[in-house]
Protein 1
Amino acid sequence: MSDNPIAATAREALKSVNVPGGGNLADYPGLSDIIVTPSALALAISVEAGMEGAFGPVRAAATEAVEKVAEGRKVLVSLTADSAPAGAGQPGAAPQQPAPNTPQPVKGIRHIIAVASGKGGVGKSTCSVNLALALKNKGLKVGILDADLYGPSIPKLLGIEGKPAFRDEKLFLPFEAFGLKAMSIGPMVEADQAVVWRGPMASSALRQLLRETEWGELDVLIIDLPPGTGDIQISLGQSVAATGAVIVSTPQDLALIDARRAVNMFKRMKVPVLGLIENMSYFVAPDTGERYDIFGHGGAQDEAGKQDIPFLGEVPLHMAIREQSDRGKPVTQADPEGAEAQAFAKVASALIEAVPDLKV
Ligand SMILES: Nc1ncnc2c1ncn2[C@@H]1O[C@H](COP(=O)(O)OP(=O)(O)OP(=O)(O)O)[C@@H](O)[C@H]1O
Ligand SMILES: [Mg+2]
């Protein structure tokens, strides 16, 4: 990537930034590759645990130096500490130290709700988008953030094209789609660059995306998480004051085991679990309208009962849900009165019940 002329100029500019302990940032071993895309320039500075504070001014100086040569691109400078937070990913580990950051709210956003799952492909993104639209249909101001840096799907689901705009080269202006404010790193990252958004750098880029977007006033921001219980989930849980998390699962036993893991992760992080959604709950034959419980419907509801968390509702497996997603016009928007959209509307109502002051 250093063969990119702007990356090379940016690296040159970083020679003017001094680092604690002597030397300059361009020569500092913790400096990442410099990634240049048509609309963004990103780099990460990885420091030893505990050195984040000392490197704060370095980050500011690096941002300033690089902005001068970024030719209008949005500059993302991430500061990441090397070591994993206490207890991360180890179910049995007792938390020995306080989390490195206190969770902070995001200005203008009343409620941040993460949509998560233990297992991939269970329909988080589909549920995120339709839930966001269903909440909007109930009169709420809603935004959606795509936190899946490795496989962003919100742009496709909402038919978003093009690059995001900026205000004063500092703040992203979110996309607008069907009355939602939407932000994703997808439009800024070329497919072959996804691999560079690893571990702490990805978490840090995401935090910036969340905080440096001009969301305006929102009643709720839905965050569509990547699958699993990895760095992004942990870092978000520790740095963002979320109202809670919604877990999506299919009714099969195996998916439920993973859902349990996700529930436990959020409980450990003291992020309230607002409830469980059973997706692909039953199959409705498109020709006859007959219902088939092909996956042993009801597993997620039972699991919610066992875990003592609310059950938010069930969403059928239906071709219309997939087809409308593929067309970039989710079923809740395309046919709000239809049975599939109504399933999401019920989930939205249950969520509003689970978060009392979410009501308008
Ligand atoms: N209720 C449903 N009925 C029919 N198809 C569905 C339903 N829910 C999701 N799908 C389809 O299943 C596939 C996976 O869904 P989606 O991308 O929402 O899952 P995900 O959990 O976000 O996946 P990942 O873990 O990769 O982020 C998509 O093709 C989507 O259209
Ligand atoms: Mg997804």
Protein 2
Amino acid sequence: MKIFKTGIIGCGRIGSILEEDPLRGKPCTHTGGFSALSNVKIVAGCDIDEDRLKKFGQKWKVKNLYTDYHDMLRDNALDILCIATWTNQHATMALDGIRAGVKGIFCEKPIDVDIKLARKLVRTCKQKNIPLLINHERRWDAYYQKAYKLIQAGKIGEIRTIIGNALSSKPGSLPVSQYGGGPLFHDGTHLIDLLLYFGGPIKWVSGHVTRPKGKRYIEETARAMIGFQNNATGFIEGGGARKYFNFELDIQGSEGRLLIGNAGRELYVTQKSKRFKGFQELEKIPFPEPKRYETPFIGGAREMVKSIRKPGDSTGEDALKTLETIYTIYKSAQQKGKRLRIK
Ligand SMILES: NC(=O)c1ccc[n+]([C@@H]2O[C@H](COP(=O)([O-])OP(=O)(O)OC[C@H]3O[C@@H](n4cnc5c(N)ncnc54)[C@H](O)[C@@H]3O)[C@@H](O)[C@H]2O)c1
């Protein structure tokens, strides 16, 4: 059996540390996900934080540890490069990985802060036939896959409206130049990715953004109205100064409704009303359970290995569309919500 030699850059929260959160379903990190596969071996790890690096090495029994990722790429003929560092380094590291000869790249979301670099990365991967997957992890979650299948099978009819929330508390004073954006960028990237997954290509956006700390800082709240190519409409909100975190999509169709998010799932279909003669109403029915469930970190790692042989899901191209949509929402907000087309 071929063993895929994997190296990870970034031994922080999503790379390794979140595995210690007792409440999360396991595995919930990239090292955990890749380690769960028998045909993958994590052979090397890299972090500029020596303390984190040492703990990573001890926890996962990885001996080849580096504080400079160039050294890691040079010394280990990696099949898979996993990038779990800060967003403004993703594309540069991925391009260096390609130069070093890796066969596949699994990278955290968003694809990058710099859209030009993100485009260059996607172009290079295409030219060199290197699979690039971006961790919009719900695409590998069996419940979201079930929701997709239900919608494709016409269970709620044609999609008319999608309401998406990625609600969170007020962010700190972080500069746009380094962080790219606020809640719409960091959590909203999952939301936009799922809007594209469920609703298909987006035609236009109209954005409204609040930046109480000034233009140079990330937004507190971003709201947008979205037009899909299939004439459905989306309404989304990222941030919103809430005391809680809530991630949810409310997908309303011509014959039913499907809600899915961190709090659970609900499915409604059209039925003859039991309350009013001659009316049709929505009735809640059980959301069908998937046959088996594993955390999307295993699904993502498995998809990466599979992608080395044939194209996978949640690709760099998908993530680039998401980033382009987010930046167009910001641009529209600067123009007082002017409706802007997505190319
Ligand atoms: N998919 C998700 O739901 C999810 C959740 C959390 C974070 N993320 C994404 O993961 C990325 C990392 O976030 P995090 O919360 O784990 O951050 P983090 O700060 O906990 O971890 C990042 C690690 O990268 C290391 N690092 C930074 N520059 C480096 C370099 N040049 N070489 C080697 N190591 C370097 C840091 O020292 C740190 O340990 C971000 O892009 C974030 O958007 C995604």
